[in-house]
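Format notes (please read before filing issues)

Several people have asked whether sequences and structure tokens are stored in separate files. They are not. Every record keeps both together, in the order shown below: the sequence lines, then the token lines. Line labels are part of the format and must not be stripped during preprocessing.
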Amino acid sequence: MISSQSIHILYTQNPLWSAFFRLFFVLVVAGMVTFAWKYRRKAEGEVTSDVDHNTRLEVLWTLIPLVITMGLFVIGLRGYISASVAPADALEVHVTAQKWSWTFTYPNGTVSPGLLVVPKDRPVKLVMSSRDILHSFYVPEFRVKQDVVPSMYTTLWFEATEAKETAILCTEYCGTGHSAMLATVKVLEQPKFQEWLDTGGDDGK
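Then the structure lines:
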């Protein structure tokens, strides 16, 4: 449903990387088991080898994991940036949290309490703040979650690829009405979304 989750896509849909991580796991575990078995204590009173280190081997097994780790860091950083920074053409919606409701304000001034209407196949950037205490915006089906903090702005973005409705939750305990702090995301085809926006949010159908 969400194109911004590039790390998830990389690990689950790219067969090359998936095979690489499986092979790496097998090599590490196989090596661990092999050396544990080969160099186990075989008899009572067996004398331990007096060889205490091998500089060349130690440098090798330090540099190889370092290169692999840095490569994985670069991949992870690219995925993190992709998931954190919204595209330039994203629709910006301001989200206001307060006990115990969500309000969504669009660039043309349309205000939609409890209903976040977004266009299908277009990035949406949420700029969020709280009027009272700490809340947390969470859409389970989109795999996006971000704290909403008083006196500051936090952001997240997503791109819905299917016209449907799904739930918005608050995942930070915020008082007696916490469990009722719910809202809905409604994903519409672009023409229907534009019609909804042009009419001031009067009709979410």
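For reference, the curators noted about this record: The longest helix spans residues 55-84. Strands lie at 91-98, 101-105, 111-113, 115-119, 124-130, 135-139, 144-148, 154-158, 165-170, 183-188.
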